[in-house]
Amino acid sequence: QVQLVESGGGLVQAGGSLRLFCAASGSIFTVNYMEWYRQAPGKQREMVAGITTGGVTNYADSVKGRFTISRGNAKNTVYLELNSLTPEDTAVYYCSLINRGLRYWGQGTQVTVSS
Q: How far is it, in rounded angstroms, from Cα 85 to Cα 12?
């Protein structure tokens, strides 16, 4: 079993910043890629950013230049730095990985951006 725990969400004004953190634990075989997704009310869950163990990153077009994903010092940890936030970034943010062919999700952390 694999567990992912996110933290760092909150309420911020437009133009502000937040830093999200995710830690994965449990029976992890090999995780080469970790991702952040988000889901806004009434919308589908969408990929926000991903990072390989080697540090190669991938971003959704909507967050390029504003969000930064990075690996933590501890194994299987990842950060997501959110800058220049807008109300359209309001969503529950989820950390995710694939382990042995199964996708795992954290419980999510709420990010709310006020105008």
A: 8
The residues near 40 (Cβ < 8 Å, ≥ 6 apart) are 88, 90, 91
Contact 50/57 with Cβ under 8 angstroms? yes
Using CA atoms, how far residue 17 sits from 52, 83, 84, in Å, is 24, 4, 6
Distance between CA atoms of 25 and 15, rounded to whole angstroms?
Answer: 33
Q: What length is written for the chain?
A: 115
Under the banding of pLDDT at 50, 70 and 90, the label for residue 1 is: confident
Model confidence pLDDT, tens digit, residues 60-101: 999 999 999 999 999 899 999 999 999 999 999 999 999 888
**Full strand arrangement of the beta sheet holding 77-82:** 2-7, 18-26, 77-82, 67-71
With CA atoms as reference, report the closest residue to 89 among 10, 7, 3, 30.
10
